[in-house]
Design goal:
The chain is about 25% helix and about 35% strand. It has about 270 residues and is an alpha/beta fold.
């Protein structure tokens, strides 16, 4: 190990989200425009109307929230971490956008505002670690939606939790912005799955290189690995949504299957009541 490399080991779950500048660089590989095309097309199809308002939950730097706003949609982003919310509000202000970034819990947030579309991406749904968390989220989102509103979830493909076929999604990657490079390892080298709880305990690592040197961060994190059948049962128990379609990526041409091209579980849910 390099002698000049600084090592920082976090102790609390979720601390990776308290350094939003690095998180923003690490995840700035998404084609937000293309993914927003998918979200709006699918929501329009299943809601039977134009989508005029949308809320992203667990929004992080709000790549998609901001893209929605650029398109003239009433757009909001919800996130639990105060540092992330403050950082993202700064991005919105810098870009002169009108979207609202809200600090709140995706299980309990309430608002008089109603949306045509609510969506959660980047496998953030796995932060809901108990059956009650998921039920609370379904009820929270349903209460935020207009009649026949659409809830789109993108989370991990079920084969990521069973068997020895390897991960569907890349867990190691590198991104550079200006003179800062962030090498990310999202649990790829240290992942402990407990089949009794369906919880993965992982170590998330950032290695950050700047002209001043290199800093390595290790963060503990925890994710619920909810099977499709459990997901369907919890949705039925909540009684707030019908699952109207499922995709294997944020791509209309990739349906959910065991094919390699299907690397996500993307249920499309329409509000019942």
């Amino acid at each position: 190990m390099d002698n000049d490399k600084k090592i920082i080991k976090a102790s609390k779950i979720g601390q990776v989200y308290t350094i939003p500048e690095l998180y923003d660089i690490a995840f700035d590989f998404r084609d937000a425009g293309k993914e927003v095309d998918f979200l709006l097309d699918i929501a329009r199809e299943h809601a039977g109307r134009e989508i005029k308002s949308a809320l992203e939950i667990a929004c992080g730097p709000a790549y998609h929230t901001r893209e929605m706003s650029r398109r003239g949609i009433i757009s909001g982003g919800l996130d639990l971490e105060p540092n992330m919310v403050a950082y993202t509000r700064g991005l919105v202000e810098k870009e002169g956008l009108s979207c609202e970034i809200i600090e709140g819990d995706m299980r309990y947030y309430k608002s008089d505002k109603k949306y045509d579309l609510v969506y959660i991406l980047m496998a953030s749904f796995a932060q809901l670690q108990t059956n009650q968390d998921i039920l609370d989220n379904f009820n929270c989102v349903a209460d935020l939606l207009n009649d026949n509103g659409i809830y789109i979830i993108s989370t991990a493909h079920p084969r990521d939790f069973y068997g020895d076929e390897g991960k569907s999604a890349e867990t190691v990657w590198s991104m550079t912005r200006g003179d800062i490079t962030v090498d990310s390892n999202w649990g790829g080298d240290d992942q402990k799955f407990d089949p009794m709880t369906e919880i993965d305990d992982v170590t998330v690592s950032f290695t950050v290189t700047t002209p001043d040197g290199t800093t390595h961060y290790d963060f503990p994190d925890r994710y619920r690995r909810c099977s499709i059948k459990t997901f369907e049962a919890l949705n039925q128990l909540a009684g707030r949504f019908e699952i109207v379609d499922t995709y294997g990526a944020i791509d209309k041409n990739i349906l959910l299957s065991n094919d390699k091209a299907a690397w996500r579980f993307v249920p499309i849910m329409r509000k019942l009541k």
